[in-house]
Amino acid sequence: MIKIASLTLTLGLLVMGSLGLTFVAYSQNNGSQSTNSKNRFPTAEYNEADLTDHEKAQRRKEKQKRYNNFKIVAKDPPEWQTERVFVGEGAINFPALPVAESKYVVLGRVTAAEAHLSENKKNVYSEFTVLVEKVFKTAKNSVVEGSEITVDRIGGYVKYPGGRTLLYRVAATNMPGVEERYLFFLTSRNNEDLTILTAYAITADGVAPLDDAEQFEAFRGLGEEILIQRLRDSLAKS
User: Fold this and answer.
1) Contact 28, 82 (CB under 8 A)
2) Distance linking the first and last C-alpha atoms of the chain
3) Mean pLDDT throughout 39-56?
4) Which one of 50, 86, 206, 209 is separated from 218 by 20 to 30 angstroms, measured CA to CA?
5) In Å, how far are 46, 199, 200 from 124, measured between CA atoms?
6) Could you tell me the pTM of the whole model?
7) What domain range is 176 assigned to?
8) Residues 75, 77: Cα–Cα separation, whole Å
9) What total number of domains does the chain contain?
């Protein structure tokens, strides 16, 4: 693992929103993440074609600019490298149910996923379309049951000219799967982009934490109703 210069970053640029990072480090591999988890990372084209719809293209450009100030993507990575992992100290230093840290808490199903580079091509972020089933906390009246929202997370595969693909990700954070249901904890650093703080998958075998941190394991295998009741209790206390 090779540490680069110490940085002070806003956690929202990585995964959350309000806590700070003290350093970022690179490594080629991290065995704690399964191949299945890595398969859920969407792919961004390094030379992405412009959208033909002018209005949609403009909105995307503006969003890409908002991701310019976190630089993680290499223009010419070493040939031997297939993955770069970014380690943020204290990046998941929050409770298992981070209701106070979240501006939005919603239950929903992921219907689509895609990834994009920032406008300067030095960052990559993934976008997920979520069909909202239940809203437990919101900062916008437009986020209601039955609505569709887009939620983001730093990371994704980048496909370079010539076909080479490299995974960029933040240590201990994973991506949700399409057609899967999650209880999402979301924040927003600019009141425009909703960022995944963390989430829990709702599966037939019980709850499964999206991210790899000890505090989330207390909920693994619980039923959906138990998780939702724990959430309501936490919201009432906050």
Assistant:
1) yes
2) 39
3) 95
4) 86
5) 9, 20, 23
6) 0.86
7) 2-237
8) 6
9) 1
CB contact burial 100-133 (16+ within 10 A = b; e otherwise): ebbbbbbbbbbeebebbbbbebbbbbbbbbbbbe
State residue 1's pLDDT score.
39
Residue 67 one-letter amino acid: Y
φ, ψ dihedrals at 88, nearest 5°: -105, 120
Residue 3 confidence (pLDDT) above 90:
no
Mean local confidence (pLDDT), 71-92: 90
Tokens 């809203």, located at residue: 135
Distance CA 238, CA 234 (A): 6
pLDDT tens, position by position, 123-150: 999 999 999 999 999 999 999 999 999 9
Return the percentage of the chain with pLDDT > 90, whole number: 78
Q: Are 196 and 125 in contact (CB under 8 A)?
A: no
Structure tokens at 189: 């650093």
**Nearest Cα to Cα of residue 107 among 204, 201, 192:** 201
Q: Who has greater pLDDT, 24 or 21? A: 24
Residue type at position 171: A
CB-based contact 41:124 (threshold 8 Å): no
Q: Which residue has the tokens 């730093």?
A: 154
